[in-house]
Write a structure and sequence with these properties.
15 helices, 7-stranded parallel beta sheet, globular, alpha/beta, Rossmann fold
């Protein structure tokens, strides 16, 4: 049995895949602790990991969910990435009980100095398309400039661990040459909950509308436009607003059910289309269930546009700008719903994705870490 310590910020779509890996490790008899924001408690309880959290004490106060998102709220992500307080919390956690291996979320490179100094075998977890991280950490991006200015760039002083666990599908995310050392990357596939084959025909299912759990500028208006477009098309839909949006603020015309939350696993079983913002985890979960995806990206500061492009490239859905006209949005929705070729491609992709388990492959990689000398 090995002791794993995972450094995990509360930052939206990064949480679920890490907890799925933690569950897999614990099912194999290992001990897992999560070092992260106190707001993770409900997430751990839902994952059956209650009591595994060591809450940050020196990290900056942080909440990704804001009532009125804008440029200032987007800039708040910069100090999260460079927060050396997370590194100090990591050092304290290691001093209390030295783990055998570390898993560090790629959203907090400010913790990598402490990771390297510890001498403990470590992996960094990349939970969306590799091109996003190469862009985010580039010296030409706002994030890359900030990380260099604060001395926390993962490219400097060989901060980057020797093992990078990339949770993307090799066909969906084709890894070519780039700045991140390719010999360190282990592409394990998407880490998503188990999916089931579609249990609906093309005509009797609903459309599932699910955007980010984090508030992005314009998200409320974008969801409202999607609802109106679906109503105009006469399509039945279920909308899960999530914690970022008040369901009462959304229109609910006949045939459109608006909920605060919903079990995506159950809802996808009878869905004929997912309309979302392009979060990697939700998108891959829909595709694994054999459900096509229409991506309406919320911001270019996240991975949404890259996921949208990958969906379009694979021919398993479509994309629409969040500010499109109602007529253009209706055409985009109908174009995916009425395409037999898209349905056939996504069913084949779903069959392949259901045969693999990114969580199991990631756990295999992490189990090898304690036997690997640190750099």
């Amino acid at each position: 049995m090995a002791h794993f310590l995972s450094v995990l910020p509360l930052a939206g779509g990064n949480v679920s895949p890490t907890l799925l890996i933690a569950e897999e490790l614990e099912s194999r008899g290992h001990r897992v602790r999560i070092l992260g924001h106190a707001g993770l408690v409900p997430e751990l309880e839902r994952a059956g990991l209650a009591g595994r959290l060591e809450a940050f004490e020196r990290a900056r106060p942080w909440n990704p969910r804001v009532a009125d998102p804008g440029v200032r709220s987007m800039l708040a992500w910069l100090p999260l990435a460079s927060d050396r307080g997370i590194g100090r919390d990591l050092e304290a956690a290691i001093a209390r009980e030295r783990p055998d291996a570390l898993l560090v979320d790629c959203m907090v490179p400010g913790a990598l100095d402490a990771t390297r100094r510890s001498g403990i075998p470590a992996a960094m977890f990349l939970h969306t398309l590799l091109g996003y991280w190469e862009g985010q950490w580039s010296p030409r991006s706002p994030m890359g400039l900030w990380l260099r200015a604060t001395g926390t760039s993962p490219f400097a002083r060989d901060r980057m661990p020797q093992t990078l666990v990339l949770a993307t599908d090799p066909e969906f995310d084709q890894v070519g040459a780039g700045r991140i050392p390719r010999d360190r990357i282990v592409q394990v596939g998407p880490v998503i909950p188990d999916a089931v084959p579609p249990q609906t025909t093309d005509r009797d299912g609903h459309v599932l509308v699910s955007f980010s759990t984090i508030a992005y500028p314009g998200q409320l208006d974008a969801i409202a436009r999607v609802i109106r477009a679906l109503a105009d098309l006469g399509v039945r839909a279920v909308v899960t607003a999530g914690p970022a949006i008040d369901p009462a603020a959304l229109p609910a015309p006949p045939g459109i059910e608006v909920r605060g939350f919903g079990d995506h696993g159950s809802l996808l079983r009878s869905a004929r289309l997912l309309i979302g913002h392009g979060g990697h985890g939700t998108t891959m979960r829909a595709l694994a269930a054999g459900v096509p995806v229409l991506v309406v990206p919320m911001t270019r500061h996240a991975d949404h546009h890259l996921v949208a492009a990958a969906v379009a490239r694979a021919g398993v859905g479509g994309q629409a700008d969040k500010d499109v006209t109602p007529a253009e949005l209706r055409a985009a929705i109908a174009g995916v719903l009425e395409s037999p070729a898209t349905t056939a491609r996504v069913r084949r992709l779903g069959e392949r994705l259901r045969r693999s388990s990114g969580a199991e492959r990631a756990a295999d990689v992490l189990e090898r870490l304690p036997a690997t000398p640190s750099a």
